[in-house]
Amino acid sequence: MPLLAACGGSDGGSKEGTTSGKDAKKILPAFVAQNVVTPDIASKNGSASGFTSKLSLADLKTSVPQKLGKGSTIKIMSPFWGSPPKGDNPYYSAMNETIGVDIVWQNQDGNTYDEKLGAVLASSDMPDVVVIPSWNMGGKIPSAIISKMADLGPYLSGDKVKDYPNLAAIPTDAWQYSIFGGKLRGLPQPSPTVPGIVPFYRKDFFDKEGYEVPTSADEFLALAKEITNAKAKVWACDDMKWTAFNSFGVLSGGEKPLGWNLVDGELIYRVETEAYLEALEWTRKLYSAGVVHPDARAANQGNAGQRFTDGQVMMYNQNISDWWGKMAEQATQNKEFRISGMDIFGHDGGDPQLWAASPAGIFAFINKKASKAVIHDVLAAANVAAAPYGTKEYMLTNYGVEGTHYTVKDGVPTKNDKGNQEVLNAYVMLALPAPTIAHPDFPDIAKEQVEWQQRMGAFTKKSSFFGLQITEPARYTSLSNDFEDLEDSVVRGRKKVSDMQQAVSEWKSQGGDKLRDWYKKLLDDSGSAQG
């Protein structure tokens, strides 16, 4: 395996570059699988593992036999979607008691977290822990992580992680992705590496009308024209850009390193490929054919999932979590409702060429000014949060206190109103177990989700920079920022495909070609995470 060379030296403290090969091996925690619980469906092809059995509280295992926390008070800033509960609620109390800490949550609105994050990281009064999703890591955030967050290597590298068995069971790829500036700084939430966006369809509607699930871009368009009946306020689909990118084999967007790949000795960026333009052209065709719901034209008007459950659109794409989310939501409102996910088709009707997603999506970072005692207690908390499904600690972390926050009937745990208000967005933000899907209320959905991931995983490749946390030189960090808005304008017919070609040409001359050289040197010096 090649050595690290973060452009600017291999001392591991550089603010640019990445860490792989032997340097990463010295830093990474040992992997020790948790054998406390055996899943019903094992992970395969980068999928989550699945649980389809009924839940029995009497059979829950223990993964944290003794309290590891030593009583520190820990302030944690974390994004929160919804209304945060009061700080002295029974859920927080039970979790803190189990861990042996006093965690004080400083919840911030997840929708405007970007704005808050920059200010807090720049201040001298940073909390003990800051949770940062990967989608909030633009601009100067990565260099702030490197300069302000603690090195967890002395506590977790190699066999040291065995003090925290649930953290030791987190997949190595997720830890590799938690190395920032040559040091292990993040506590990861591992995620499946198969694509996370599913093209969903209304199975109840398809079954009733006798529609076949499309297996090519042409079939999708033809079916979409057949389904659409604007007078009856029924449109075939919502914006399908994300599915188009997958169907046409476009390199991952969002996280810039994954947008680069070595092809026949040449490094290319996603926007330079024919596949990228073809995907935009096809999505544009859907809009111009009038098969996309009119509200989707505004890009951010209304909610695609709502239009789907209302029966205004029959197909939309969204994160795989909507598979269960929509089914659970509609179970009491519309007994006929049935959601399913179609396999991503290759645009020409053949197999798709899919690209692996990042092995972790959200990280918790510890302030480097934190005392050793605080760091140990944060790790103790993360060790409870990372407990696997089927354990007492998992149930407490994800459902709260039995009787107070949830009840179990016929093997199905159900949160009450108090559970829904208090048990969300909290301790799970510190760490998660290896990717798991379990829905005791809808075991068939869990099975379908995992099997979809396994089928799609068979067509998923890792690009050259998969699994590497790369800090680009500051001068390039905003170079690609305008592409997403331009994509949306092109597919909606407000701009032409030629406008995108022009933007790509400008991107090259304004730094894209120089950034390519930087990535090429990085690959030559560091190698990939796979060696």
UniProtKB/TrEMBL annotation:
Keywords from the named record: Lipoprotein, Signal, Transport
Main location: other
Record-level GO cellular component terms: cell envelope
Any Pfam family the entry gives: SBP_bac_8
Coiled-coil regions listed in the entry: none
Span of the signal peptide: none
Coiled coil keyword on record: no
Annotated compartments: Cell envelope
Family annotation (InterPro entries): Bact_solute-bd_prot1 (IPR050490), SBP (IPR006059)
Chain spans, region Disordered: 1-21
Family: Belongs to the bacterial solute-binding protein 1 family.
UniProt name for this protein: Lipoprotein
Species for this entry: Streptomyces lacrimifluminis
